[in-house]
Amino acid sequence: MSGSQNKKVSPYLIYISAAIITVILANFVFNFFSNYVRKQKNDPAPITKPVCRKTTIKTPAPKKPLPAQTENTPKPPAAQQTPAPAPIPTPAAAPEPIIPPTFILSGIFIADNDAYAIIDNKVVRKLDKVHEATVQKISLEGVELDYKGVLVKIRKPK
Prior knowledge:
Blueprint: H1 11-40, E1 105-111, E2 114-119, E3 122-124, E4 129-130, E5 133-138, E6 142-147, E7 150-155
Antiparallel strand pairs: 1-2, 2-3, 4-5, 5-6, 6-7
């Protein structure tokens, strides 16, 4: 029984050693890939102190006003002056027709004195808004919406 005896190694020592080796290996891999990505982006170095430059904006010098006509300047005779042409009237552009979006009515619920509808996956009541449209009426036949002044009727699904 000399120095070559088999000593048992504690399993906790193995777990702690494995955890330390894993952390060191993960740190090495992370640093390797972060430097690799930085070199690909052509970043010269990590964040450095920002350089501030003073910027001056040059404004153009004000223009000299044109000299006004004086009494000494000759004026053209009245016969040679031509009147300005009359503006050409442009036809009024016809307003574009209002096209409401497509509404999907999934269901109608009427209970007591309250009516609900599911339009575009949203539960609505009278006077609620759906895509800029206001619910005007909910009945068993369908729903009426006011979209920018246009009455839109949606019939219940069959």
